[in-house]
Design brief:
Layout: E1 5-8, E2 12-17, E3 20-25, E4 28-32, E5 39-42, E6 46-47, H1 50-59, E7 62-66, E8 72-76, H2 85-123, H3 130-144, H4 151-167, H5 169-172, H6 190-211, H7 231-254, H8 260-263, E9 264-266, E10 271-273, H9 275-289, E11 292-295, E12 300-303, H10 304-321
Parallel strand pairs: 1-5, 2-6, 5-7
Antiparallel strand pairs: 2-3, 3-4, 7-8, 9-10, 11-12
Helix pairs in contact: 2-3, 2-4, 2-7, 3-4, 6-7, 6-9, 6-10, 7-9, 7-10
Length: 334
């Protein structure tokens, strides 16, 4: 993959050889150029040792691990060089004093980007999506702007936004990709499999981008901070799901690049992308991450991947300097 990302789809072993990375599998050795790799996605069983991890740490390479179902398992990344006690304290203060407003900003960002995705289909003769578009534009602001909302009420509003979005899939996708119910672990049909796989990749990509900021990944605002996960990455990635994950899914399915009969393994109670399907999806979502647009405020071209990191910078400026935080907007390109 371009721009420093490498996906390993087969079983094998990662090791250091001199100043190079070697991936060994049944086909032999593949040499990975250290100077051009920033992150490695291990999508199968990969053997490695601490000597290799130490080498990656010194080279600044992040490793993401996924399980059999395509779910994100965890990340190894080098020691945080940008760690900041000041920013962490400010993040905690923002959580204690202004969590609800930050959470509402994320929810509004999700809604705004869902609106833009649906409006695209409305303009292409999918008039059935109009009720959801109207609800987001006319009704939702009254709910979100209520100053008395608690975090549970904010989360319920977020849930309703996603549910209304899912209800429109039947107007956008062919019948064999209709979403009857969002099922995650494990996904039980092709569309759930695509969503789960895409969300896992987006989440891990967000982990990598936040690593390049001063933010503490465990202090979040929309999602509940808890042990054993980078919950701030869950916050930041939510806004980009309509932009990156769902637009990728809609394009692949509607152009028949992904088909139920060719790209899924279906068992009694779950449905997963097969290896060919994963490769098609990975190539498409990476192309979207690297797609370039003109950033309105910065007045220069950036990628969607960089936009995730910029959202991290915006949140950092909010908690440290009090500058208003507005997540990425597909409409305004900021």
């Amino acid at each position: 993959m371009a721009n420093g990302t490498k996906y390993l789809m087969s079983m094998g072993e990662l090791k250091r050889k001199d100043n190079s990375i070697v991936f060994h599998n049944e086909k032999g050795n593949s040499y990975l150029p250290v100077e051009s790799i920033k992150e490695i996605y291990c999508m199968n069983e990969i053997a490695l040792n601490t000597k290799f991890l130490d080498f990656c740490a010194k080279a600044g390479i992040i490793l993401h691990f996924f399980n059999y179902y395509g779910y994100y398992s965890g990340t190894f990344y080098p020691k945080e060089n940008l760690v900041s006690g000041k920013v962490t304290i400010k993040q905690v203060e923002a959580f204690l004093n202004n969590r609800n407003n930050i959470a509402k900003s994320f929810v509004q960002g999700i809604a705004d980007n869902i609106y833009e995705v649906l409006y695209h289909y409305y303009r292409h003769d999918k008039k059935e999506v109009q009720p959801t578009i109207d609800w987001i534009r006319k009704k939702l602001p009254d709910y979100i702007e209520d100053e008395n909302l608690g975090i549970k009420q904010i989360l319920r509003i977020e849930g309703e936004i996603w549910q209304r979005f899912y209800e429109n899939f039947k107007y956008i996708l062919p019948e064999d990709f209709i979403l009857n119910k969002r099922v995650k672990r494990p996904p039980d049909n092709p569309i759930n499999a695509l969503i789960s796989f895409g969300n896992s990749i987006l989440y891990s990509k967000t982990v990598s981008q936040i690593y390049n900021t001063h933010l503490n990944q465990t202090i979040s605002y929309l999602h509940e901070p808890s042990e054993g996960r980078f919950s701030l990455s869950l916050d930041l990635s939510e806004v980009f799901k309509p932009v990156i994950v769902y637009r990728t899914i809609f394009d692949l399915v509607n152009t028949k690049q992904i088909q139920v009969s060719k790209h899924f393994d279906k068992k009694y109670n779950y449905c997963l992308l097969n290896e060919k399907g994963k490769m098609i999806f990975i190539q498409a979502i990476e192309q979207r991450f690297e797609s370039v647009f003109q950033h309105t405020k910065l007045k220069r071209k950036i990628t969607y991947k960089s936009a995730i990191k910029i959202d991290g910078y915006k949140l950092e400026k909010y908690v440290v300097e009090g500058i208003e935080f507005k997540p990425f907007s597909l409409k305004n390109m900021i």
